[in-house]
Amino acid sequence: MASTQSDVHNVQQQLSSEDQTYAAAHLNETDETRENAVAEIRRWVDENGDLIPRIDEFLILRFLRVCKFNLEKTKTRMQNYYNQRSHLSEWYMNKDPHQPELRELLDLG
């Protein structure tokens, strides 16, 4: 899936103006940093064949925002996430919240 400027713009448009202001002030997110960071993460994923992530802009921006647009932290977080999904796939598959075992864990908080 190729990245386009309009894809990044569409994801950004999902934020309210209040959220856009917050993102700029607290997450270092501007139009320029968003576009550059998404492009850099896409390049990094392409160069690292061991990662096989879903790589749409929405998901990339979620990681970037959690890491306040720090590219190295974002890369580390993404790599850890996909390594964990790969090595512990049973944690992520076929989870029914009504199963007694899961219900017990969910009830614990």
UniProtKB/TrEMBL annotation:
GO CC annotations on file: membrane
Record-level Gene Ontology MF annotations: phosphatidylinositol bisphosphate binding
Biased amino acid composition, Polar residues: 1-20
InterPro entries in the cross-refs: CRAL/TRIO_N_dom, CRAL/TRIO_N_dom_sf
Domain CRAL/TRIO N-terminal: start-end pairs: 56-81
Region (Disordered): 1-32
Stated name of the protein: CRAL/TRIO N-terminal domain-containing protein
